[in-house]
TrEMBL record, chain A:
<dbReference type="Pfam" id="PF00005">
    <property type="entry name" value="ABC_tran"/>
</dbReference>
<keyword id="KW-0813">Transport</keyword>
<dbReference type="Pfam" id="PF08352">
    <property type="entry name" value="oligo_HPY"/>
</dbReference>
<protein>
    <submittedName>
        <fullName>Dipeptide/oligopeptide/nickel ABC transporter ATP-binding protein</fullName>
    </submittedName>
</protein>
<dbReference type="InterPro" id="IPR003593">
    <property type="entry name" value="AAA+_ATPase"/>
</dbReference>
<dbReference type="InterPro" id="IPR050319">
    <property type="entry name" value="ABC_transp_ATP-bind"/>
</dbReference>
<feature type="compositionally biased region" description="Polar residues">
    <location>
        <begin position="340"/>
        <end position="349"/>
    </location>
</feature>
<dbReference type="InterPro" id="IPR003439">
    <property type="entry name" value="ABC_transporter-like_ATP-bd"/>
</dbReference>
<feature type="domain" description="ABC transporter">
    <location>
        <begin position="12"/>
        <end position="263"/>
    </location>
</feature>
UniProtKB/TrEMBL annotation, chain B:
<keyword id="KW-0547">Nucleotide-binding</keyword>
<dbReference type="InterPro" id="IPR027417">
    <property type="entry name" value="P-loop_NTPase"/>
</dbReference>
<keyword id="KW-1003">Cell membrane</keyword>
<dbReference type="GO" id="GO:0005524">
    <property type="term" value="F:ATP binding"/>
</dbReference>
<dbReference type="InterPro" id="IPR003593">
    <property type="entry name" value="AAA+_ATPase"/>
</dbReference>
<comment type="similarity">
    <text>Belongs to the ABC transporter superfamily.</text>
</comment>
<feature type="domain" description="ABC transporter">
    <location>
        <begin position="23"/>
        <end position="270"/>
    </location>
</feature>
<keyword id="KW-0813">Transport</keyword>
<dbReference type="Pfam" id="PF08352">
    <property type="entry name" value="oligo_HPY"/>
</dbReference>
Amino acid sequence: MTAGNGTGRPLLEVRNLVQEFVVRAHGGVRGGVVHAVSDVSFEVRAGETLGVVGETGSGKSTMVRSVLQAPPPKSGEVWFQGVDLAGARKRRDLVAARRQMQAVFQDPYGSLDPKWTVFSIVEEPLAAYRTGDRRQRRARVEEVLDLVGLDPSVFGDRKPGQLSGGQCQRVAIARALTLAPALIVCDEAVSSLDVLSQAQVLNLFERLRAELGLSYLFIAHDLALVKQVSDRVAVMYLGTLCEVGPAEELYRNPLHPYTKALLDSIPSPDPERPRPRVPDELAGEPPSPLDPPSGCRFRTRCPRAAEICAVEAPPVRAARPDHTVACHFPLSPAAPVSPVEQSGDSAAE
Amino acid sequence: MTTQIQPDTATRTADPDAPLLTIENLEVTFRTRDALVHAVRGVDLTVHAGQTLAVIGESGSGKTVTSRAVMGLLPRTATVRGSIRLGERQMVGLGEKELRRCLGREVGMIFQDPARSLNPTMRIGNQLTEAIRVHLPMSRRQARERAVELLAMVRLPAPARRFHEYPHQLSGGMRQRVMIAIALACQPGLLIADEATTALDVTTQAQIMDLLLDLQQRFAMGLVLISHDMGLAASYADQVAVMYAGRVVERAPTRRMIAHVRMPYTRALLDATPRLERPPHAPLPVISGRPPDLRVLDPGCAFAPRCSRSQDRCQHERPELTEREPRHEWACFFPCADDSLPGEDER
């Protein structure tokens, strides 16, 4: 279980990631270039969970897929364990890296082959990487099934159709664990589960993190859920990162107006708290990524927007230690705002 | 934004205190190839004009089946027993023709996935006009004018232009607004929203809920929110009914329920919900196990196998939903203490 690489660099380092898709116009749908991810930089340190929140269409799924090189990004660097995946055109490097970087997706039934048994689903990565002989593989599959709380003697021969959503998701997690990866990418991995199975799976993620020293890149649209598992949280809007900071601090003192708007929109189970209020500016939906606003992408819905926001994209600034924000007029900056270089985020360590 | 639409008072009952919707001892079973699935097992619910009732439960708890039974939207394999009254009218056993006449006029429904509820090949204006003309004697032109009014009422931007667009040209939030316009086309007294904001983003959800509550107050509608989200219920509903395995297990006014949870299942749901107030990495208190097999009718409490408070009695005898404190009903022999969890109330 090698997490970092000894040089003090983060496990995953993403610099200036750009992903764009060309779509053709047809049937009343506009064509053009979808600016799905525009110049995004962040890092995941060994043993930590970075949560990414954002609304539908903010580009969070596209971003993690670009990180996984499926498909590779248009430009930018993705350094994983000291190898630049985006630059590494050598297939062997990519295959080796993918072994250390596994993913769990949203739809538990859709991501498992309905005709395979749980045992063969979990065994497949071992077979694909030609790891061990039959006996060793069997032992490993039983080990990881135990780890995710599924009794191999009970569930090994079942097929996904005979499992509940939560159990399917456990199988998907077991499959991600078989190769002993350093990083697990979770794209809305618990979003389709009921409250109780969701809590069970979230606790499982936390336990595995502690036991195996895993790192997670955890994508979800639910802010409370992301806070539950994250050390740091990144907020994404229309293909750009608005704010990245320590979870507790970012939720208590959001610096970006968008983060605040998101937090204010969540209904609380405490009826004494006021009803969610959406500022009038935020009414309506985000602009199309086909034609993102000039300057700051959030300016068309931002209550604080001024002239400069339309002209100039706000640089990423370190507002507090380990807390960056991309906004010309951030909320309550406690520390003096000083610009940092785009690629120099990690230099702060 | 004023509309000429008046609430259709004729379909309301004369007595203003009489409930809009009364469900009594509702049972729904589904025939499958090898067994009977008892999806709803004796549900009682009432909704009054101007009231918002949230029905909370996990998948398989019977909340959606209950609402579909009200709308007569169950498949042929379903058997419905018990009583569902809309005002004075008994809905169970009503023929399809009569059912169609009431639906839309007296009760409207919106669903989770607006993209699938709308016809992708029809302009939204035509879909809305159709919904109006099925129920109301209006000329095409009148219906069209009304449709644009309705689109304005649900705060769809540029309604006159959107009228001519297809569903795929609208965003998810806008489609849900169109669905609300269709559901409210004939001013029903009751609106059922089945996970209507689940697929939407939080900021959009807040806007749609704002709109729903605003319309509800304007037209003194009864509103039923079917949801799995305790946060949504706590923020928007007057009353909460929690369902488990086809039964209502606890019901109370929202504030009372959250502050004085008595049913261990409700407690478990609340505890397991991630909240903004919780620090990161604090393990979620969660019960193990799964909801029971709905094919089996056990004599005891359905929650007993997962319940930390269960005792022998719970295995053999089923606790009835009873009003044990003023306006607070629960179905449990060994309820949680009133001052539930320390620190939970006094945040």
